[in-house]
Fold ATP synthase subunit delta.
Amino acid sequence: MYAASREASSRSREALRAALTGSDGAAAATGSELFAVVAVLDDQRSLRVALADVSVPGSARAELSERVFGSKVSAATQAVLTTAVAQDWSRASDLVDTLVLLGQEALLESAAVSGRLNAVEDELFRLGRIIADSPELEQALSDRGKPTEARRELLSRLLAGKTENITQTLADQVVTRQQTGIGTAFDALSDLAAARREQIVAHVRAAIALTSHQRERLAGSLQRIYGKPVTVHVEVDPGLLSGLVVRVGDDVIDGSATGRLERLRRSLT
């Protein structure tokens, strides 16, 4: 995002926090309603452009959003939307992307309030791994040649009775909008959930499954390095032969046998 959109996004997030403060039970509804607004904007380009048109006063754009959505969403959602469309956005897509993020954050707030944030975070990570490990499934979920409802039905069958309702709502929105990198999108959501808990995420590939004690030791070591609590997500990759590969943001710590062999090969050449 350019500077204008970053500032607009920051103010919109402040509006979300204000709208949800003291509003018990409003977070889930606000998240779902923001996703519904995004669906309308994705479908109606002229409205999307009009709500982000900086040549029109922000108050006029806010009034337009109230006319279109005011009777369809809650007061909390409309307060967030009014603030968002009144900002100056560099691109209309930045407004829509921010509304997506606000919807995600509202739903994660709902999970936190109900004590289910850890479960949602873990489910999003595991779903991302399942999709990343199955190119056929990722293709089926992102195939724009198939009707949206068909892709949503496939996801529903995959998750039926296995996840939190909030996980289902977040996943459904990803599949509806995302055209590529669906597995990566779920990883990003998992990271967002960890950030909500003021933790950072370590994505770990291990040659064999780690015990609970090994996970705790690894999390403790990474916390000492990064100075913040660390959530450890582990996937088993026998191709590593032995050891671990740990990724935290852009940092990669490769202590696997294959990594050591690759470094040795490079030194010899």
Summary: Strands lie at 200-206, 230-236, 244-248, 251-254. The mean pLDDT is 89. Residues 92-113 form the longest helix (22 residues).
